[in-house]
Amino acid sequence: MEDKGNKSLSRRDFLRIAGLSASSIAAGKLSSNSSPMTSVEVAKSHTAGNLRPWWVQTVDEPTTEINWDGMQRYDARMTARGQGFANYIGQAEADRLTEIANQVKKQRLDNNVPGYTLKDQAINAAQSAYTFGSRSFLGPQNVETPMERGVPSWTGTAEEAAQILRAAMRHFGAATVGFVELNKNTRKLIYSYDPDGKEIVFENVDEAYETDGKRVIPDKAKWVIVYTVQMSSESLKRAPTVIAEQTTRLAYGRALDIQIKTQEFIRGLGYQCLGEASSNSLGISPAFAVMVGLGELARHNRLITPEFGPMVRVFKMITDLRVQPDKPIDAGIMKFCKHCKKCAEACPASALSFDDEPSWDIQGDWNNSGHKAYFEDSIKCKTFQRENAATNCGICFAVCPFAKKNKVWIHDWVKTGIATFPFLDGVIRSMDDAFSYGAQKDPEKWWQLDLPEYGIDTEQTTNDE
After folding, report:
1. How far apart are CA 176 and CA 313, in angstroms?
2. Mind listing the pLDDT tens digit for each residue in 376-416?
3. What's the whole-number mean pLDDT along residues 323-350?
4. Would you call 264 exposed, middle or buried from its count of C-beta atoms within 10 A (0-12, 13-18, 19+)?
5. CB-CB neighbours of 3 under 10 Å
6. Is the pLDDT of residue 424 over 60?
7. How high does pLDDT run on average in the chain?
8. Spatial CA neighbour of 244 closest among 346, 344, 105, 123
9. What's the half-sphere exposure (Cβ side, CA atoms, 13 Å) at 144?
10. What stretch of H or E contains 243?
11. C-beta atoms surrounding 4 within 10 Å
């Protein structure tokens, strides 16, 4: 664990250290360029088809070690989400914990506890009322196809297809978008069974279809579309309260809207697009996000992105429209997590690993084996949520040093230091503690904030021409 004495680092010391790091990095960059560059210019590059800081490098293999030969397709019914929780602790215990959560929530409502008041509960309930449309594997299929319009299907190169898909999905509300081709390895990231019990099957057919027992993916549908949706940092820093929970629900609602529109857009081009039939279905979202370079797997066993840290939710679809695949990235995130451990220290359920190195050993059948990670104890996590939080949690997201709003240049330089100077990781973690960046914020004050649309910053990946 970190030496708490380091927390006395002053803001002046922070600026001095960061300035030295910035100067060194800038000097190194300028030595290879013929003309001076501003910090903004230095920071602009493209990886995974998205506008990224220059220090985010594409790599052939992800920073998470994978044993493809030892991996099998995972049965989503084995997760600890939803009904799966009862499979591990028994239905009676699950019902007892649910009743406790309901009592805690009611008591806090009656006592007007900030974060659980009537207005908090009302906005949370509103986020659950998805009005965007109905979720389905095959999509609404309402848009006219090219055949129905009397014209050929859209044609273009794989690069052009990726470009127009990324443009459309960003316009629909996706934060970042990436693509990966399904092969004998990456097919293993598609669930064998969806959470609702339907088997997911690959068949040599022209059209996808669904029956009472299975969902069929045509062999020719070989490309996975992976996208992130931002969550509000200001909201999640009120975790674990209803105010924090509602930003998660908002992200899922927005993702559903993006899925439906993308399915219809691709249908309008003359191709198929298969989506999540229910929340967290079809395949392993963080794994696919790692494979397409949207981020790295982190200590809390979730995705951390260079742009938004952990403040995203990840979703995926499958299409037979050929797109240019993206590569994984190395932004120093996994290396930083080895030293930081802040999320594990903050976890009230003690559900996260303190190990110095990731492991091949899973904590339970709710984890998918075959890769090296900091596996979490989902039973401890879910039990805490029902017994104490009466909501979902998210503290591990909120305290993460990457969960910062990049309002000043120095935050970019800190991330640059993480990526290029790993020996600074411990110092940067201590600076994060010194400024109390991960401290929980007052839920009541959230209602007084003048937040942007959806409570998020939509300019971090902007590339205006």
Report:
1. 11
2. 999 999 999 999 988 999 999 999 988 876 544 445 555 66
3. 94
4. middle
5. 8
6. no
7. 85
8. 123
9. 7
10. helix 242-269
11. 9
- Strand-pairing partners, residue 330, are 57
Asked if 281 contacts 76 with a C-beta cutoff of 8 angstroms, the reply is yes
Task: Give the whole-angstrom CA distance, residue 309 versus residue 418.
Answer: 13
Q: What percent of the chain has pLDDT over 70?
A: 80
- How far is residue 415 from each of residues 53, 335, 402, 409, measured CA to CA in Å? 9, 12, 8, 10
* Cα angle, residue 169 at apex, residues 167 and 170 outer, rounded to 5°: 65
Q: Which of 354, 351, 355 is nearest to 364 (CA)?
A: 351
| Residue 111 main-chain phi, psi, to 5 deg | -90, 5
The closest of 2, 1, 22 to 427, measured between CA atoms, is 2
Q: Which residues of 129-158 are buried (b: 16+ CB within 10 A; e: fewer)?
A: eeeebebbbbbeeebeeeeeeeeeeeeeee
Q: What is the pLDDT of residues 85-126, one digit of tens each?
A: 999 999 999 999 999 999 999 999 999 999 999 999 999 999
Nearest CA to 318 among 290, 280, 276, 354? Answer: 276
Q: Which residue has the tokens 């674990």?
A: 240
Q: What is the pLDDT, as a whole number, of residue 82?
A: 85
**What separation in angstroms does the CA of 441 have from each of 207, 234, 331?**
50, 8, 28
Nearby residues of 12 by Cβ (< 8 Å), 6 or more positions away? none
- Enter the tokens of residue 251: 């992200």
Nearest CA-CA partner of 358 in 331, 376, 377, 380? 376
439: its two tokens: 């401290």
Q: What tokens were used for 414?
A: 């800190």
- The distance in angstroms from the start CA to the end CA of the chain is 46
φ and ψ of 57, to 5 deg: -100, 140
Sequence-separated contacts (24+) of 105-109 with Cβ below 8 Å? 105/242, 105/390, 105/391, 108/390
Give Cα 66 to chain centroid, integer Å.
19
pLDDT for residue 47: 58
- Rounded distance between C-alpha atoms, residue 6 and residue 11, angstroms: 13
Average pLDDT over residues 30-46: 40
204 Cβ contact partners less than 8 Å away, ≥ 6 residues apart: 218, 219
Secondary structure class of 259 (helix, strand, coil): helix
> Looking at the DSSP assignment, which residues form a beta bridge with residue 57?
330
**At 286, is the secondary structure helix, strand, or coil?**
helix
177-181 and 223-230 beta bridge pairing: antiparallel
| 269/143 Cα distance (integer angstroms) | 10
Q: Which two tokens stand for residue 71?
A: 């991996």
pLDDT band at 18 (very low <50, low <70, confident <90, very high): very low
Backbone φ, ψ for residue 159 (5° rounding): -65, -40
Please give the structure tokens belonging to residue 3. 């030496």
